[in-house]
Each structure stands twice: as structure tokens, then as C-alpha cells.
Write a structure and sequence with these properties.
By secondary structure, this protein is an all-alpha fold. It is 76% helix and 0% strand.
Length: 508
């Protein structure tokens, strides 16, 4: 290996490390927060829906702005947007630690989310443009997925330790040193890059996405308390339906849409979107139920609850790089199938066999879910960006990230609504959560089925066709200069050198 190759490879690894640091603080924030929910609920005297909003206000803003951030980074520069995201996320974390009340905390979580929206899809786009070899890129994405496992492993432990020793506000302090170090390294090592064909801004499409996601989530979270026929809930549901119809109609007619409908002609890309929503709905619902059960039903403190969740996080961490190697050597199919089976078996243990009432069964469910979640991240990301032109990498990665955050928001909204409805009817925690565990099981079954349907030869053929459609047209070569007849000076034609008069347009 030459010295230049060595330096180039080392530089790529540094860039990967910086991108992984950004993913760590964004992912760690949610896992840490889950452990702190009961302490926050006691201090602010919050309801279940209040706790849902501390999570979903963050994920909703992320889901709404990820595609915009990816397209903007492709247009004005990925390093510039990435650095700004680090600044906003770190500042938002400091504000969250100072929040005087629940509504202020929710508002500051939105500031965090604006910064977070500039990190994950842009980081994935940077990785895609840095690691151009498909196998090397798959391994890099496997490392990227392992960081999610690290956040799952470290989040409950770090969060539990901080909540029990210092208080829940300290969980946001963790982001400050990591964010500042990542910012300094970004300015030093990450090269600037842009799309060769930047996309124009789409404010109408962006507004429709916000109305769609916000309306659906508000209706689901608030319906148990206000009722589905309340004006606010019904208005949000109808507004979301109208936004969806408007989005499909409007985006299909734009030259540079916020969400290019042609992406979804690729069966693997569409499958990755569905799998991402299902997987992260399962994860967010799983963490929400588990955290509340361990602390409010079993009476554990935050640190003990974090230790109980460690098997799930540890297996997610261990399986993520394995999945990256599997995707590199055998494609996404094996990882997706095993993931769907493992997460489905975990949900079934809680839904049908009341695994929470038996410690061995409960830990078995945690391990199975960790295995399934660890295996699924790499194939989602790799499938979303593979086959797409590099000029579209930012937008494609942003759609995949949006699917994750949308799933996370819907998971907390739906699972929390089921729990709130059950407890409002007088049921105990175990009885009230039984339908929620069946929903989680169903999401895992969807991962299995969609993974099987969208990873075969037919699906691969649709991805190739879509990639060809998305490639920009080559520039038309300039016409050769006009050759004047011998002996005639340029511009001395009988017509005085003027262009010919326009004739009739050619037929067709």
C-alpha cells in the first residue's frame, strides 16, 4: 500500500469517526431520555401524553426537516450544514438542561431537533461520498449501525447513573463535550462537498410534510384524553389527510420535488422505507413500555432499570457490525429475515406469554429484540443509498432517516395512546399494555414479509431501472462552427450575416 493510499484510508476513517460522533449524541439523547422519563414526570407532574410529547416533539421536528436538510446540504455544502447542525444541537442540549417547566423542555427539544436534522442524513451523505467502494461502504455503514447499539448500551446506564446521582437535567450535559469535539474535528478534517446537480428549495412540499406528520401525531397522542370527535383531534386528522393528498399531487408535478416520487419505483428503496418505519416504531414503543414498567411497576431506580435493559443494548451493539459484513458479502436479505424473526419472537413473548412477569422470559425477550434491532439498521441504510446516483445521496439518506424518525414518533404516539386508554379504563399496567405488545409483534412481522419481498431479483431489477431514470441527462454537445465557403470572408454572406428567418416548426 502506498503512502498516499494509507493517508487516504486514514482520512476516510477519521471522517467516519466524526460522522459516528454526531450519530452518537443524537441517538444517545433519546435512550438517555427514556430512563429519565419517570423522574421528569414526577418533577413536572406530567401526564402520559406530556411524556410522549417530550419524545415526539423531538422526533417530529427531525422527521419533518431531515429531507430539507439533506437537500440543502447537497446544494450549499455538506460540511457547512453539518457544522451548523452540531452548533444548534449542542446549544439546544444546554437549553434543555435549564428548562423551568415541561412546555419549555418541549420547546428546547425542538431546538435540539433542528440541529439533529442537519446531522444524520448529512453524515450519511458524507459517508456515501467518502466510501465509494460498495463493500467498503457497507462495512462503514455497519460501523455506523454499531453506534446506535452503543447509544442503546450506554444510554440507559449513563442516564440511570446521572439521574440517580445528579438529576435528570444532567443527561443533556453529555452532549456538550461530544458536540464541541465533533465540531472542531469537522472543521479540520471533513472535506466540503456538494451535489453536481443541486435541487431547488420546495417550501410548499416542506409545509405539507410538517402538517402531515404533526397532524397524525397530535391526533394519536391527544385522542385518548380528548376523544376522536373533539374539534382539535378531528381537525388535525383531517388536516393530515388533506396534506397527504396535496403532497402526492404537488410533488409529482415538480421538477425538483422535496420527495422525488421516482425513488419509490425502486422496490428495495420502498421496502427499506416501510421496514425503517416498522422497526423504529417497534423500538420506540418497546423502550417506552419497558422504561415505565421497570420503574413504575417493579419500582426500580433509574440505574437498575438501565442495567436491566443492558442485554438488549449489548446484543444490538454486537450484531450491528456483523450485519454490515453480512450485507457486504450476501446482500440485505439474510439480515432482514433474521431481524424480523427475532423481533417478532420478542414481541410474542410479551404479548402471548406475559414475559414481564418472569425474569428469565423477560431477559430472553430483551436479548431477542436486541439481536433483531442490531441486524436491521445496516440493510435499511445500505438499501436506501445503494443504487442511487451519488448526486442524490443526501436526499436518499434523508428519506431513510425520515422513515426512522417517523416510525419513532408513531411508535411512541400509538403505544402511549394504547397505554393511556387501557389505564383510563381501570386496567392494570400488564393488561393495558397487552394490545401494545401485539402491535410491536405485528411491526416485526411486517419487517420479515417486506424484507423477503423486496430483496429478490425482481426487486433488484426495479432498483436498476430507477437508478437509470434518476441519472441526470448528459449535456448536449455544442454544434460545430459553421464552415464558410472557400474565398468568402466570415459575415459576408448575401443575407448580411443575419440568422435565417424562422420557418414552420417540424411535425411531432
Amino acid at each position: 500500500m502506498s503512502g498516499t493510499d494509507h493517508v487516504s484510508r486514514r482520512h476516510r476513517l477519521v471522517v467516519l469517526a466524526i460522522c459516528c460522533m454526531s450519530l452518537l449524541i443524537v441517538s444517545l439523547d433519546n435512550t438517555v431520555l427514556n430512563v429519565a422519563l419517570p423522574a421528569m414526570r414526577r418533577e413536572f407532574d406530567a401526564s402520559v401524553s406530556g411524556m410522549q410529547w417530550t419524545i415526539d416533539a423531538y422526533t417530529l421536528i427531525l422527521a419533518s426537516l431531515l429531507i430539507l436538510a439533506g437537500a440543502t446540504a447537497d446544494r450549499i455544502g455538506r460540511r457547512r450544514v453539518f457544522a451548523l447542525g452540531l452548533v444548534l444541537f449542542t446549544a439546544g442540549s444546554v437549553l434543555c438542561s435549564l428548562a423551568p417547566g415541561l412546555h419549555w423542555l418541549i420547546a428546547f427539544r425542538m431546538v435540539q431537533a433542528v440541529g439533529g436534522a442537519m446531522l444524520n442524513p448529512v453524515a450519511m451523505s458524507i459517508i456515501t461520498n467518502t466510501f465509494t467502494d460498495p463493500k467498503e461502504r457497507a462495512r462503514a455503514i455497519g460501523v455506523w449501525g454499531a453506534v446506535v447499539g452503543i447509544s442503546m448500551a450506554a444510554g440507559p446506564l449513563v442516564g440511570g447513573l446521572l439521574v440517580d446521582s445528579v438529576g435528570w437535567r444532567s443527561i443533556f450535559w453529555v452532549n456538550l463535550p461530544v458536540g464541541l469535539i465533533a465540531l472542531a474535528l469537522t472543521l479540520r478534517f471533513v472535506p466540503e462537498s456538494r451535489s453536481e446537480r443541486p435541487r431547488r428549495a420546495d417550501p410548499v412540499g416542506q409545509l405539507l410534510v410538517v402538517v402531515l406528520l404533526g397532524g397524525v401525531t397530535y391526533a394519536i397522542i391527544e385522542a385518548p384524553a380528548q376523544g376522536w370527535r373533539s374539534p382539535a383531534v378531528l381537525g388535525c386528522a383531517l388536516g393530515a389527510a388533506a396534506a397527504l393528498a396535496g403532497l402526492v399531487f404537488y410533488e409529482s408535478r415538480r421538477t425538483d420535488p422535496l420527495i422525488d416520487p421516482r425513488f419509490f419505483r425502486s422496490a428495495p428503496f420502498s421496502g427499506a422505507t416501510v421496514i425503517a418505519v416498522s422497526t423504529f416504531a417497534s423500538l420506540s414503543g418497546f423502550l417506552f413500555l419497558t422504561t415505565l414498567y421497570l420503574q413504575e411497576v417493579r419500582g426500580l431506580n433509574a440505574l437498575d432499570a438501565g442495567l436491566h435493559m443492558l442485554p438488549m443494548a449489548a446484543f444490538a451493539f454486537l450484531c450491528a457490525p456483523v450485519s454490515g459484513r453480512l450485507v457486504a458479502s450476501h446482500g440485505p436479505r439474510p439480515s432482514l429475515l433474521v431481524s424480523g424473526v427475532a423481533m417478532g419472537a420478542s414481541g410474542l413473548l410479551f404479548a402471548a406469554f406475559s414475559a414481564e412477569t418472569s425474569t428469565p422470559l423477560m431477559f430472553t425477550g430483551y436479548v431477542l429484540f436486541g439481536i433483531g434491532f442490531g441486524l436491521v439498521n445496516a440493510p435499511i441504510t445500505n438499501t436506501a443509498v445503494s443504487g442511487m446516483p451519488r448526486a442524490q445521496a443526501g436526499v436518499a439518506a434523508a428519506v431513510a432517516s425520515t422513515s426512522r424518525q417517523t416510525g419513532g414518533a408513531l411508535g411512541v404516539a400509538v403505544i402511549g395512546a394504547v397505554l393511556a386508554s387501557g389505564t383510563a379504563g381501570g386496567a392494570d399496567f400488564a393488561t393495558a399494555t397487552r394490545p401494545a405488545w401485539w402491535i410491536i409483534t405485528g411491526c416485526a412481522f411486517l419487517v420479515l414479509v417486506v424484507g423477503a419481498l423486496t430483496t429478490g431479483p425482481w426487486a433488484h431489477a426495479t432498483a436498476l431501472r430507477t437508478a437509470r431514470e434518476l441519472e441526470p441527462s448528459p449535456p448536449v454537445p455544442a454544434a460545430p462552427p459553421r464552415q464558410e465557403p472557400p474565398g468568402q470572408a466570415p459575415g459576408s454572406r448575401m443575407d448580411g450575416g443575419l440568422p435565417p428567418a424562422p420557418g414552420p416548426a417540424p411535425a411531432g
